[in-house]
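Q: What would this chain look like folded?
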Amino acid sequence: MSGTAIAVESADGGLLSRFGSRPPPAARRVMAAAMHIADLRHRLRALGALPVHEDRVLRRWAMGLPQEGGRRQLQHFLPQALRAELPALVDELAGLARLHSQHPGEDGSARLLVALRDGQQVESVLLPRGGLCVSSQVGCAVGCVFCMTGQGGLVRQLGSAEIVAQVVLARALRPVNKVVFMGMGEPAHNLDAVMEAVQLLGTGGGIGHKNLVFSTVGDPRVFERLHGLGPGEVKPALALSLHTTLAAKRQTLLPRAPRFDPDALVAAGEAYARATGYPIQYQWTLIEGVNDGDDEIEGIVRLLTGKYALMNLIPYNVVDGLAFRRPAWERAAEIARTLHRRGVLTKLRHSAGQDVDAGCGQLRARAAAPAGRIPIAAAPG
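A: My prediction, written as structure tokens:
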């Protein structure tokens, strides 16, 4: 796809393209690979489904339940045309996300390398106590300099059905009662698909609204979208990747993220926290010699004191070929204690997969064959 510019700022949240004519073959293959929940609804309606039939089929799929179960027998409830096509549809949905390999961690987590139907791979993480971390893109356009996923660029978007399919796959392995959108990709760059998945998971998927956590580096469109949700729509909790309190350093660490000053980002987060009643989770990857100094501690105290917020400190998961290192656990614990003592609610977390060398993007990087990258235009200043 050399020479084809694809801007991450496209408002439609789809392929993020602005082609002047018909997309080139590689881009058309990307579009064809991604299945969306809206596509499923259209197909069900074409088979005679009413909204009550759509909701039943999608609910049982999202819950990881067989279509043949439930109080009502299929022959007495679903239209005949839909019943006839249901086995093929079930097989197709099962093919959206298949388990390629599983890598258990000592903390009860497990990294899943997930194969998609076009041969691409993403990662999901089973977390302790019923949590699941899902991916929203194959690759990522933000290009965080410390992240393995960011090194490879964006390959393609996931469809909303592919996102939910990761939950269905995980539920075949263990119960899931919380879903965090913190895997591969930047959810803000695939906004329509992620929000469509959030709506299904928060209604038919049996996940409580505050247990659906939308994670982002920070994008004004995310806040606009979330504040615009109506009374009957699912409002997810929000996690914001902060990583530093210094604007210039943030541009260096997150080179293609929107130019969102940390002060403005926290202000936007606080407004959403007060509107929803959910505290904002601020994500901070602790990197030795980069953002673990006393100046950053003072900056965090300044930004978050009095805010409805939780600071998650996550020691860096070392990536082969990158010079970054995580600080000693004693230093990380000292930072957490200092912040807590000074009034900032702080949790020091282990990054799932550290003990199996499987931080975000590492499994895919080891297993995947070279894939075509989509050239990414830098975010506007």
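The chain has 13 helices and 14 strands.
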